[in-house]
Amino acid sequence: MIGNGPEPEILSYSRPKESDVPHNLNEEAFLRDYDPAVYKRPNCTVDTVIFKVIDSELYVLINKRQAYPFKGCWALVGGFVDLEQDKNLEDTARKKLLEKTAVKTPYLEQYATVGNAWRDPRGWSITTVYFALIAADELELEAPREAWPTRWARIEGAGIGENLAFDHDALLAGCLKRLRDKAQYTSLPIHLLNGSFTLGELQKVYEIVLDKSLEGKSFRRRLLAAGILETTGEFSYESKRPARLYRYKKEPGPHVFMRNLEGSGRGGKNV
Amino acid sequence: MIGNGPEPEILSYSRPKESDVPHNLNEEAFLRDYDPAVYKRPNCTVDTVIFKVIDSELYVLINKRQAYPFKGCWALVGGFVDLEQDKNLEDTARKKLLEKTAVKTPYLEQYATVGNAWRDPRGWSITTVYFALIAADELELEAPREAWPTRWARIEGAGIGENLAFDHDALLAGCLKRLRDKAQYTSLPIHLLNGSFTLGELQKVYEIVLDKSLEGKSFRRRLLAAGILETTGEFSYESKRPARLYRYKKEPGPHVFMRNLEGSGRGGKNV
DNA sequence: TTTTTTAATGGCTCTAAGCCATTTGATAAG
DNA sequence: CTTATCAAATGGCTTAGAGCCATTAAAAAA
Predict the structure, then answer these.
(1) Phi first, then psi: what are they for A76, rounded to 5°?
(2) pTM here?
(3) What superfamily in CATH does domain A40-181 come from?
């Protein structure tokens, strides 16, 4: 489903039989004469909120704008949709993400699209916002490929402690809320880990995202019952008692639990 | 939150102090000389899947295309974003919806945005898809305001029994899935009713959307415990025993229940 | 050997869903 | 007038899964 995990966009569509469509024979001629300049079109961009856990805290990747408008301001990772290079919107998101992080296979989900006349001083513009989860131990960018700076900004509350270019503060806040909402009832945060991990480590990641501590017994029961993990047979000896290591069984999308975590502000409330 | 109910888009953003932004003083000059024609831009449209319950079945509004491409084919309600008239994307959706249905205040939610090089034969195009819920007893369009036909198509399974223009089949299927998913854990389907209604009527609407029968006791308990309904004091005498009438307490967004309806194919599965 | 620390389990309560029989209040049929 | 019928509404159970908290387990540190 669109907007709920990485997956190919719709690749084909079908048309009714020609005989059912009046004047369809003229469509070819119409397209030959089609002038793309007749309507004014908005600027179209893609912005991605890239989340990562570093030292038990949640971070977002931002970079300094090197061009007008908002030159010199910090902004989300993103850019214009390139009609020549990009086949679809997700291509744009992945391209920019790869440029900044060298991560090829993040969890990538479409969050929403904001389009209006005032968000960009250049005029009517549309941005489709994605968010990505990348694993803590993912390879960092070896050397900065670009001259302008990129950095991880720590999440505090509903955002980072500073203003971003355009409406990016609000876009970030929205993605953060979506991530936290989904952590209440899906296995989404698992994508912030890679390879094998202990249940303790996974619980810690949930706690970092949700910014509250969870009850260990419930957490283990919930995740083991979901059947989305498998033991590697190995153990982690990082802490006192050795802990069993698990890996994520690759699934087409996040697991959805039957119940929300309680006392969370989700149940009984409005979205 | 964007994409989860009708609400205003972000209205303002803030910038860092000018002193913190290098060369910011030149931004005005940059904007004065800005040439919007330097980048190629995609076509931008908004399509809306309008749902309504008629005679105990779920329907979508479609209309026949009067222009190329796909002239004469049935398609979702939608059209180009008009940079002069529309202040934002939701404006476009509401304008088109009002044109076709005369309904001013539907439940309107952004579903997703699809943008790629192949969905429109005219080339790279982006469509932002909304879905709307309108009440069964909502005023129908008095007289057809337009020459080309519009009709309600019955939902069967994952769509209607015929092909639509462009990728509209897939867009419809996606919205339908979203609606059904949300019916499992939110009060969303309540927007398919208006004014006062009995719990039996509300349950029927859920059953139509979910295409399965629900257990009466659980349904009543769930909805009454949610605290989103209030009694009108009136009774409905439509069936044998009089039934208490309720109205929906207007809330900022749909109520989210702590648990999903069971045996639904949602719990324990992937989105 | 004892203490400390984290992993993992046992066993309870509690909430809300499923299930199904029963009661209630009206109309329809005899 | 009495009885049958039917949907509305309730009672009272079982069940799944979350919260809570004490206990046991396995290792390192003291």
Answers:
(1) -65, 160
(2) 0.89
(3) Nucleoside Triphosphate Pyrophosphohydrolase (3.90.79.10)
